[in-house]
Design goal:
Chain A: It comes from Westerdykella ornata. The complex is a heterodimer of chains A (about 300) and B (about 450). Chain A is mostly helical and about 300 residues long. Helix content of chain A is about 60%, strand content about 0%. Classes of the chains: A mainly alpha (about 300), B alpha+beta (about 450).
Chain lengths: ~300, ~450
């Protein structure tokens, strides 16, 4: 059977119900935090590697798929940081924009050296001591092996299903179909819609794993038009793009909630790094347990 | 006591009621439709047609339209695959080995759970410096993408062994490959059979090209044939997606396609190429089906070019203006009068092919083959154009695949011999005529020159 190239593999109900991490005793709020931080890390690394957003978005979707379901990867077993690096390496290899293992290792070493997850732009631009993120040849060989091992692990867990259809080009096509490009603020609208699609990549509701690209594009346009104040047809235009009202409503709520989720995360973690390795995660879980016993 | 699931009177009544309701609904719908049609017919007479749909309609109209929509609109739903971890390779037992391909070993195996016979292709883990082999990754990605076409081999799943170094593609098993089959056949395929095979092949290639995929290794040993006459394209190890035009995308490898099927522009080191290189290979395969032997079995790059030019004629300024700008063209010395249309067989490929296949091929067939073997890549037809060529419409008509003769399968029984060269290996560098190595070109040409009487070309040594 042939699947449409516009369709993505979606997570099954069983896969959404639980995850390898939860089975290993990782609290689900912590899992959300780590997945969110991992997706942001992938985005940052992709930008530093000068990859196009399509490649970065695919890598984030692969990263997200990896952790889903009882047979998925577990945070108690694999470093989120490593999974992020290998996803990006793997996806870039399949694209027309391959990046070398050395570049990927260097970029992740640099990002690892940043003091906290939610860093201010000013702090980022402060002059840094290059010693902190220099990767020696010996270390590089070790990291390269880890990069390749995790690449294989990802392939195994995903059963080689790496296809990721993205909503970006669809979104532009839909805007054209809605005939908005004559409007003076049309490019603002398009930018806003694309921003929503990028936001959806970070959603704790795993929107890219539960909804097909046409629906994501439609919801992004709906919200962007509200934000920019451009009036769209007064009929149920979303049905033209194969999205029913219920799905549109769900996605709109999902997309809007990412902002408050991100703000809550930033408040929660403040000057602390979200644990992106197995060891760091264990430390956080242990610290929570200790706190728990103190309270009782 | 009767079973609670048994039909009773209440059920019958209920069914009747439902039926009646349905009929009523149907009648209502028909009525409404008729009314609408009438309205639509009347409308143009009453007032000028709307150019655009009115967005703010009167409340009553609006209500009606929303009612219509809820019952009639159907939204497109995509069938989406899911994913799960790779199964273990021990779900299959190997029956016999078939062959060793460019980057993997192929064997026939049975799935223990279902008893189904499949072909297993074990991926060679050679290129450890780049992680998981990109060729295998591309093959899996592309096979997943083209799944479902009748003339492309079906990838069932990917299984893994204990360690990471054992990755096996599970594919449908077909009894023959065209190369081995032709070696075993006493006579070439009939004209009607050739047509069917070529049409199936062109259909597969058309499908790939429509999906922006170049196969880059079309050859008879990569074309499988079932005992029911179904042809399927296999081995996508060299295939890739045509990259979007972008200044910072990495360039395409020049060293692709097995030598005998490699297009002249690749041999001459072109930095950019497209789907037309597959059409060249298709032309070579067409010729091979006609004569049962490879059309252009060159010994090395230089010999290959020599064979191409003696089959198709020499390129001229008119037929292929870009020719002299190709990197390796500078090292060729072609007869000066070739461009002026002198004694050398100029670019009339059709005339040369007619001489080569005097009785086997009709005028239309020769025309098709000659266009596929155009030296200038821009002159080759697309796969879709091949499919609509009148050659397929004329007699003898293509033979229905079901009527194909069956042959004893070698893949089912024993290991194959392998005589044709492999596809070039990744990372061997770019195609360069100079790189042909220790082969003594002058020697080859000394002999050839006499044989060919002026039609050849020379390599300028040093």
């Amino acid at each position: 059977m042939q699947f449409s190239p516009l369709a993505n593999p979606l997570a099954t109900v069983a896969q959404l119900e639980t995850s390898g991490s939860q089975l290993d005793g990782v609290p689900s709020d912590l899992e959300d935090s780590v997945r969110f931080a991992g997706a942001r890390l992938t985005q940052a690394a992709g930008i530093l590697l000068r990859l196009p957003q399509e490649v970065i978005a695919q890598a984030i979707v692969i990263f997200t798929r990896f952790w889903v379901g009882p047979e998925g990867g577990s945070l108690a077993e694999h470093d989120a940081e490593q999974v992020s690096a290998s996803s990006l390496y793997l996806v870039s290899k399949l694209s027309a924009f391959q990046r070398s293992a050395r570049s990927v290792v260097n970029v992740y070493a640099y990002l690892h050296s940043l003091p906290f997850t939610f860093i201010d732009l000013d702090q980022l631009h402060e002059k840094k001591d290059a010693q902190e993120y220099y990767v020696t040849e010996g270390t590089y060989q070790l990291r390269k092996k880890a990069l390749f091992d995790m690449e294989q692990r990802i392939l195994k867990i995903l059963g080689f299903r790496l296809q990721v259809a993205l909503p970006y080009t669809l979104c532009i096509t839909y805007l054209q179909a809605l005939d908005v490009f004559g409007h003076p603020r049309a490019s603002e609208l398009a930018k806003r819609a694309v921003a929503y699609l990028n936001t959806a990549l970070l959603s704790p509701q795993l929107l890219y794993l539960t909804h097909q690209p046409p629906s994501l594009a439609t919801a992004a346009i709906y919200l962007a038009a509200k934000d920019v104040g451009i009036k769209l047809p007064d009929v149920e235009w979303w049905e033209v793009f194969d999205t029913d009202r219920e799905e549109l409503g769900f996605l709109v709520v999902g997309l809007l909630s990412v902002g408050s989720f991100a703000a809550a995360e930033k408040e929660k973690w403040g000057d602390v790094k979200i644990p992106l390795t197995v060891d760091a995660l264990e430390a956080v879980i242990n610290a929570r347990d200790v706190d728990g016993t103190h309270e009782t | 006591m009767a079973s609670r699931w048994a039909n009773d009177e209440a059920d019958a009544a209920e069914a009747a009621r439902r039926k009646k309701e349905k009929e009523q609904k149907k009648r209502m719908k028909e009525l409404k439709q008729r009314q609408q049609e009438d309205a639509a017919q009347r409308e143009p007479a009453d007032r000028p047609p709307h150019k655009r749909r009115r967005l703010s309609s009167s409340p009553s109209e609006k209500k009606q339209s929303s009612q219509d929509s809820s019952s009639e609109r159907r939204l497109l739903r995509f069938d989406a695959p899911t994913w799960g971890p790779c199964r273990h390779v021990s779900n299959f037992e190997t029956l016999n080995h078939i062959e060793e391909g460019t980057y993997g070993w192929v064997s026939r195996a049975r799935e223990i759970g279902t008893g189904e016979v499949v072909a297993l292709k074990k991926v060679k883990m050679d290129y450890v410096h780049d992680g998981f082999p990109i060729t295998a990754l591309r093959e899996v990605a592309i096979l997943q993408k083209v799944r479902g076409h009748a003339n492309v081999v079906d990838l069932r799943e990917v299984v893994m062994g204990e360690g990471f170094d054992e990755v096996v593609l599970v594919m449908e098993f077909l009894e023959h490959d065209l190369k081995t089959l032709q070696e075993d056949m006493p006579e070439p395929f009939l004209a009607s059979e050739t047509k069917t095979l070529l049409r199936q092949l062109a259909s597969a290639v058309d499908f790939l090209h429509q999906n922006h995929i170049i196969h880059r290794d079309l050859k008879t040993s990569n074309i499988l044939l079932s005992n029911r006459g179904a042809l399927k394209l296999a081995d996508f190890g060299m295939a890739r997606l045509l990259p979007p035009p972008s200044p910072n995308a990495s360039p395409l490898t020049q060293l692709v396609v097995t030598l005998w099927y490699r297009a002249p522009e690749l041999l001459l080191g072109t930095p950019i190429y497209d789907t037309s290189i597959d059409i060249w290979s298709l032309g070579c395969i067409f010729g091979e089906l006609l004569q049962k032997d490879p059309l252009l079995p060159g010994k090395n790059e230089v010999d290959q070019l020599y064979k191409i030019f003696s089959l198709c004629g020499l390129p001229t300024e008119k037929t292929w203006p870009q020719f002299w700008r190709l990197p390796n063209a500078k090292s060729l010395r072609l007869p000066r009068d070739a461009g002026a249309g002198g004694t050398a067989p100029a670019a009339d490929t059709a005339a040369l092919l007619r001489r080569k296949f005097p009785n086997i091929l009709t005028a239309k067939g020769t025309d098709l083959l000659a266009s596929m073997l155009s030296l200038n890549p821009d002159h080759r037809p697309s796969a879709a154009e091949i499919l609509s060529h009148p050659y397929f419409a004329e007699n003898p008509k293509p033979k229905p695949p079901e009527l194909f003769p069956t042959f004893p399968s070698r893949a089912g029984q024993e290991r194959r011999r392998r005589k044709s060269p492999h596809a070039p290996v990744r990372g061997q560098g770019n195609a360069r005529l100079e790189g042909a190595g220790e082969v003594d070109f002058s020697g080859i040409f000394a002999g050839r020159e006499e044989e060919m009487k002026g039609a050849g070309f020379q390599l300028r040594m040093g």
